[in-house]
Amino acid sequence: MFTQSSTSNEPTESKSDSSLTGPLQQADTSYERGSNERSIELYSQAIEQNPESTAAYTGRGAAYLVTGSYELSLEDFSWVIAYDPQNGNAFYNRGLANFEDEQYGNAIEDFTRAIEINPQNDNAYYNRALALRNANQLEASISDFQRVIERDPQAAFAHWGLGNSYYDLGKNEEALASYQRYHKLTVLNPDRVVSERIIELKEKIDNEHGRQRAD
Predict the structure, then answer these.
(1) How far apart, in Å, are the Cα atoms of 27 and each of 8, 21, 167?
(2) CB atoms within 10 A of CB 9
(3) What is d(CA 99, CA 106) in angstroms, rounded to the nearest whole number?
(4) Helix (H, G, I), strand (E, B) or coil at 187
(5) H runs (alpha helix) in 50-191
(6) Domain 148-215 -> CATH class
(7) pLDDT tens-digit readout, 16-74
(8) 153 to each of 57, 146, 157, 158, 174, how far by Cα in Å?
């Protein structure tokens, strides 16, 4: 459910978008099939025909993001935001582009705006948590990961992210609990690093308890 780079390619149609159903459908089909370069060409054609097509800008921005053209992706999503300041999907997608471009402060701002527009956008909370982690705002990232888990206790990667933040803060027992939950949810495809950290944390906690008993 929660993925870092899952764009929300849901167009917000302007009044004249209906006349571009053909080109947009072709572009959307190409995008869905993974033909990103072709979809960019088709979205660009749609924009040439109708410079106010938010659907075409949204689609092209998503395709640019997938191909790693982050600056171009940012430009397209920024255009949609300027045209429709209440478009939460555009803020969310621009946040993803900023994240991939390692502009974590900007990503946090975009995800925050997406959440303000749509407080039920769990993906925005998850990706903001990742951006906060990368910006070394670990306590804040914990709050967002916890919020995602409250909404969906089966969100494995939120437990993984939460464990990482606790681990970096030296909160061993909390990190262990989060990693164990993640491990349980992904038992059919175990993560070697997480498995090693579980062993490491158990040893640390046992040693800490041993020292406490000695005292």
Answers:
(1) 15, 10, 44
(2) 19
(3) 8
(4) coil
(5) 54-66, 70-83, 88-100, 104-117, 122-134, 138-151, 156-168, 172-185
(6) mainly alpha
(7) 444 445 889 899 999 999 999 999 999 999 999 999 999 999 999 999 999 999 999 99
(8) 35, 9, 10, 9, 16
